[in-house]
Amino acid sequence: MVNRNLIREFDVSEDDWNAAVGELAPDDTGWLETPYVDVNQIVEGKVIRVDEEFVLIDVGYKSEGTVPCDEWEEGEDPPEVDQVVRVLVEDVEDTQGRHDDRGMIVLSKRKAEKIEKWMKVMESVHEQDVVSGEVTRKIKGGLLVDIGVNVFLPASQVDIRRPHDIGEYIGKTIECMVLKIDEARRNIVVSRRSLIEAQRSEKKAELLKELEIGQSRSGVVKNIADFGAFVDLGGIDGLLHITDMSWGRINHPSEMVKIDDELEVMILNIDYEKEKIALGLKQKSASPWENVGSKYPVSSAVKGTVVNVMSYGAFVKLEDGIEGLVHISEMSWTKRISHPSELVQIDDEIEVVVLRIDEQKQEISLGMKQTQDNPWENVAGKYPEGELVKGHVRNLTNYGAFIEIEEGIDGLLHVSDMSWTRKISHPSEMVEKGQEIDCKVLSVDQNRRRIALGLKQMDEDPWATDIPSRYQQGQLVQGKVTKITNFGVFVGLEDGLEGLLHISELSEQKVENPQDVVSVGDELEVKILRVDSEERKIGLSRKRVEWAEEDEAAAEAAAAESTADLKGGIGLDSGPLFKPSSDVAGENPAAEVPETGGPEVGPAGTEMATDSESEG
User: Fold this and answer.
1) How far is Cα 505 from Cα 296, in angstroms, rounded to an integer?
2) Taking the CB of the first residue and of the last residue of the chain, which one, N or C, has fewer CB atoms within 10 A?
3) pTM of this prediction?
4) Strand ranges inside 258-369, DSSP E
5) Alpha-carbon distance 285 to 245, whole Å?
6) Can you say whether the dihedral through the CA atoms of 421, 425, 431, 437 is positive or negative?
7) Strand partners, 498
8) For 154-197, how does the pLDDT look when each residue is reduced to its tens digit (9 = 90+)?
9) How many degrees, rounded to 5, is the angle at CA 106 between CA 101 and CA 110?
10) Is 306 buried (19+), middle (13-18) or exposed (0-12) by CB count in 10 A?
């Protein structure tokens, strides 16, 4: 019988085991103690006759038995009469008549030899002993090894890394460690792997005592991974990381080493507790970063090869082991680059300028645009203040439009510089993307790389001559209500030009809400109270349309007596106008609202009070 738990552990069936090893003897192991010829006893007998098929043997006690001739192995001397042989008594003549078909007891020379070999092995072999034997055959789940008796070597125990075909070991003599011995079931399991691991463990302990950081050692590449290669130093493996293989760039360790390559490596680090060793190959030669500052001084122009392109820039190899980064912002003075691949590709040879060196971090910053003239250095000369330029609207923002006057050179056309009279809420009211327009250069700031452009400056300021000549104090004009606020009504006099009809000038009666009197779009006749060219405001009145000159004079006199500092424009020379709610630069300071008299306004939308303000 065979220990099923033992053989199942190593994935071999009981039938395969019996077919390979064979049953040695029945479970009754008392055969050595029997003082007479009995079943399961090994006895000596004398050959008394040799036939073609059987050998007749006298085992004494008037007992004779036969052994098949084929139990003498090929190459073994054939049996001879009077020869003494040892045989196992398999069956005897008893009261139940158990005997062979010729009335003889049944003997086996082969089984006697197996049992005696087993006993001999058991006398000298113990668990954890090292045994040597020839691999005789391959069975399901492993190999059979003859160490005097057949023992089982599971496939998983053949080597540290399971071989592709364990059949290649057949016929070879190998050493193994005895894992388990089951004397009752007469089977032995051995492991070559455990022996190798034990030997390696001993060598590893000895080797760890010898190794020192900085030593050069010879080793053999045993395995390659994406992150590096494992090198056998003669009992212990060390890791040669991909970053320690070469000063230059490599994508995979297989570019540098192959399995079974013999290498001379340097010990970089030893972790005695975890038994891990870090190895280096590139450290055997001097680092190219030594004296890199003298080889590549800052501001010097050098040539290199593009080795990698990322979203933020391109890496350029200056020599093996030395790469620099050209950031996307350092690629062009004028071109707007979304990705570095628009300008460079891998393997391109380019000229660059060294911008910065950090030897400690082993980093070099490079620039491509520095190899060309900076167009901004000549911008002031090319586009002096007052120069007329032509460009295309490249982009629109809430505060203005960017006008490209040459490739990479933009000027800003602010909303406040688009019209003398119109209030511009968004530049799209005046220009559109891609449109070609003419502008005037207002200012150039080379340091900040800014050019201010103007559109309204292409024409004369109408507030200087035209508006004061066409709109005068006391004049009656027609206009349309464009906007109503809580402090008054804005009236459009012409395209882009508005005046403010203050709530106090809407009617002879006191008005609480201007919407009770007028609506947006109403046509009104109003009287001009004041035109202020400096403040760019026009004050209007509706209630004074029918007033005579003496009414105006009386109102002015009364106003002069009531206050020495009028805040509304009522046609008096004394007293400032109230401030606009948004100036030409687009700011929105709080506006002052006049207490009395007709308020003033400037260009369209330059309101002099916010909607939330009420009469002062």
Assistant:
1) 78
2) N
3) 0.44
4) 262-271, 276-280, 301-310, 313-319, 322-327, 349-358, 363-367
5) 11
6) positive
7) 492
8) 988 888 887 888 888 999 999 998 888 877 667 788 899 988 88
9) 130
10) buried
